[in-house]
Amino acid sequence: VTTFLPSGIVTLTTDFGTADGWVGAMKGVCLRVERALVLVDVAHDVPPQDVACGAATLAVAAPEMPPGTTHLAVVDPGVGTARALLVVVAGGHAFVAPDNGLLDEVVPRLGAAAAWRIEAHAWLPAARSATFHGRDVLAPTAAALAAGRLRPEAVGPSVAWAPRPRDGDTIVVRYADRFGNLVTSLREPPPGGLVLPDGTRARLVRTYAEAKPGEVVALMGSDGYVELALRDGSAAASTGLTRGARLGDAP
Amino acid sequence: VTTFLPSGIVTLTTDFGTADGWVGAMKGVCLRVERALVLVDVAHDVPPQDVACGAATLAVAAPEMPPGTTHLAVVDPGVGTARALLVVVAGGHAFVAPDNGLLDEVVPRLGAAAAWRIEAHAWLPAARSATFHGRDVLAPTAAALAAGRLRPEAVGPSVAWAPRPRDGDTIVVRYADRFGNLVTSLREPPPGGLVLPDGTRARLVRTYAEAKPGEVVALMGSDGYVELALRDGSAAASTGLTRGARLGDAP
Amino acid sequence: VTTFLPSGIVTLTTDFGTADGWVGAMKGVCLRVERALVLVDVAHDVPPQDVACGAATLAVAAPEMPPGTTHLAVVDPGVGTARALLVVVAGGHAFVAPDNGLLDEVVPRLGAAAAWRIEAHAWLPAARSATFHGRDVLAPTAAALAAGRLRPEAVGPSVAWAPRPRDGDTIVVRYADRFGNLVTSLREPPPGGLVLPDGTRARLVRTYAEAKPGEVVALMGSDGYVELALRDGSAAASTGLTRGARLGDAP
User: Does residue A41 belong to the interface with chain B, where contact is any CB pair within 8 Å?
Assistant: First the structure.
């Protein structure tokens, strides 16, 4: 669904942390556009400039929100360069984000997408900083969209949007979550389990509780990817594997 | 007060952290049930699977909320096992949480409690993951309760609820807070102070300012428990004491 | 503008962290005063008792909020001592905070200020703890102000307010942000760049992208202060500089 009927809900996903004032500045910009917007924090402790982790976070959270939600997402290592800023509509949701892969996980889950490059519109401030496009471009765009005062097609020219291609045959660790589970790139449960780089096999189980103490197992995670997990412990610490480590399908 | 008149406010307390998308997913589920719910973050950095810390956090925060609030609390090391999921009503508040001790501190503060085990109701999704009951069971139950579309007694059978028994005579460190204060299990100010495991005595003072530089003191904390504190420093780091350490009443 | 027309928005900025229940307790107190208040988290991971960092966070976030906003700010190492608690109105915003320098950055950005010391009013609880004035004094004051049920001049006697004097000629590192950028006390871009304590020069650039790999540069930050930055890295880690380090204007 590439039509967008705004509900007034704006989610925020950033790597800004929760010590500095940047998140608050973006919220202020939104509330200056429309006091009645509903601001919903998704996550602000995405590791700094970690676009892949931000993409995974958005993919877990955004599809659960009601259609009509506007998602303001800022993990933007390229701020100050020529990378585009986008509005992407998919599944009745609108995303406002830099064009750097941050939407690559979530948008394909929502179906067909339409996209526009943010160039100029009435809600942008005349003066913009070189280092904080989240506050100066993305936040006012998201707020005006969510408030129904700006249409996606009014932000700038229509552009083609597609996720960056991925190596579909390789199984890799995508990221470690807070509990030390290693979330992989595999979407189908591997009947024989997964083979770790050191040759050991992690068998497939259905819940954490089926694992033996100290055993690293593979199981289907709640967001649709296979995970490596250690019962009552951290699979990341136990295996030493990090982002990008290659895994094998067990025969 | 075991009647519940929902106000539309839902608080969230979890160990999910603020980097991943799980908190956002639960918020999305709530807003899909009812867009007008008011979502209030209490704390998401409860240490992973630390039920005792989560219980203390809830006990500090939840009683301050207005009656009619629904509290969604997820610290759930037993996800995937047979532990029950509960709705507990006390003091006009409703709690939606796993049955693992997470409510043991807060509910007794609010008076008589009534409880139900969540088994089946119209707001649960047909398909549920094995690893994320927060999103698939607890969030839709909390949202429907808060929106007044589900009554507590409609979630499943009534069950007896009581906090797990504790050793009432032993004084222990319950947890260290962010400032390094050691919160104990003692509710009455000890006139002679507390005796640490190494035999030193922490005298009782009324405010941090009464302590001498470098002196570990005992004082009544704002949530009704005696704390060990170090002025301008961390009592936890200074004493080396951790959760469960035993303390004595000074004669 | 020293008149205050409350909008019902309350922002929260604290050093309470996001594991314990204190933030939730303050939110509960606010919602008990008025359920329709809009609570906006600015930041809760200000380093414990770091008033200077809290002041910088407020200065970045608060001016972006719409006039009529009430800002509840609690970084309060002096709790339990005789330090005053204040309501300060500037630029149409109201601040409720301890009188310890926490407002020194933000209020001067908003123009003329009027201030009152909180002594007694109808919204304060009869019993107050010695250690949690955020919950017992500041939160009910902020909520009643934001709800339009209490006027600033009704909280206590009018007092003169001015920021603590600073050494205007010295350029120092004020704090390191989450990305390792070193935010300085300098408000004007130095044409010749900045000189670090070891004598090396950081040249002035306009965006992070103009820096060479590995080069520490000076640039105008989005909040109006000159920063030292390292492209794709942490200037704080690279230079070893910390809060208070002295810098020089390059000739």
Answer: yes
